[in-house]
Amino acid sequence: MGFEIKSGIKVLVVGDVMVDHYIYGNCNRISPEAPVPVVEITREAYTLGGAGNVLKNLIAYQCHANIATVVGHDDNAAIVLNELAENGLTNAGVVKDANRCTIMKTRVLVTNHQLIRLDREISTPLSAEKEQEILAYFKKEVPGYDLVLVSDYNKGMLTPGLLSGIFAICRQLGITTIVDPKGTDFSKYKGLNIIKPNRKEAVIASGINITNTESLTAACQKLQEITDCDSVVITMSEEGIAMYTAGQLTIIPTKALGVVDVTGAGDTVLASLGVAIASGYSLYDACNFANHAAAVVVSKVGSATATLEEVNSQIF
User: Fold this and answer.
1) What is the sign, positive or negative, of the torsion defined by CA atoms of 124, 129, 132, 136?
2) What is the pLDDT, as a whole number, of residue 5?
3) Which residues, other chains included, contact 25 with Cβ-Cβ below 8 Å and sequence gap of 6+?
4) Which residue intervals define the domain Carbohydrate kinase PfkB in the entry (predicted)?
5) Rg (Cα) of the chain, in Å, rounded?
6) What is the structure's pLDDT at 256?
7) In terms of pTM, does the model score above 0.85?
8) Which residues are catalytic?
9) In this structure, are residues 277 and 287 in contact, taking their beta carbons and an 8 Å threshold?
10) Which stretches in the chain have pLDDT values below 50?
């Protein structure tokens, strides 16, 4: 029978949007100028990355989704707005900030292997003025949504003040919040419902080295204590997904068969967890669904997405 996604789900993504720029080419020689490879470019592609990749995953699941984010006053901002328009989305939640640049990650790939990555970004904290601009949009729009996914890439947008405002509004409205965190201080996420770090992030934020089930449980308890969340979900690469809820730890083994590229897998897990929970599934079933979705995307090159059909075909 497989998983089913409830029709009409509305999800608002909040977080650091970026442009993923891919340069594809061939490499057959070393430069005479320096001991570096020469890449002959065959094609280029631009797509939404970061929180924008979470958005793309939601669209692949045919959800009604949109984003609240910040871009710069620059040419790359146009790429973000064009990508949103091409997916039939509005840019009402996109705040422009002259003091920032639109984040861009340029990856050079040769025969599907990444040769180098070049990042353009400014990660200073968002100004109080821009915080209020985003919160005003959020407060006005979020009552029409079923779920809020917070995608933090630690680029300065998600300040403690902005996060506090978002979680307070969602708690008041009874809207579930799921956070993909970054950084060392998870106290800024206090008031969310579910936090979803990867293993490395969980170790750093909890201060507990995860080496076995006991230390994993202790790390989850510590994160729950720091954030006052309902549940902790930790992605652990080849070891699967761990979930801690109602005082119980459960580990769901990985479903990945062939790993080609792990880029954006965390975004897929966040989106998949969200749509499954919004569809009425338990946290265990949502983690199981997300686990299978991650297995689909890591078998593809770049920040890929999975459709419901692909996930279900992976399960059965």
Assistant:
1) negative
2) 86
3) 39, 40, 41, 42, 108, 109, 110
4) 10-306
5) 19
6) 52
7) yes
8) 267
9) no
10) 261
Q: Is 26 helix (H, G, I), strand (E, B) or coil?
A: strand
Strand order in the sheet with 176-180: 94-97, 64-72, 10-15, 147-151, 176-180, 194-195, 231-235, 241-245, 248-252
> Do the bridges between strand 10-15 and strand 64-72 make them parallel or antiparallel, or are there none, so unpaired?
parallel
Please count the residues of the chain.
Answer: 316
The single residue listed with the structure tokens 């579910």 is 194
pLDDT tens for 190-210 read: 999 999 999 999 999 999 999
Nearest CA to 20 out of 42, 48, 43, 41 is that of 48
pLDDT at residue number 314: 72
Tell me if the domain spanning 10-17+49-102+123-315 has CATH number 3.40.1190.20.
Answer: yes
Helical H segments across the chain, by residue range: 51-60, 75-86, 128-141, 160-173, 199-206, 213-227, 265-278, 283-297, 308-315
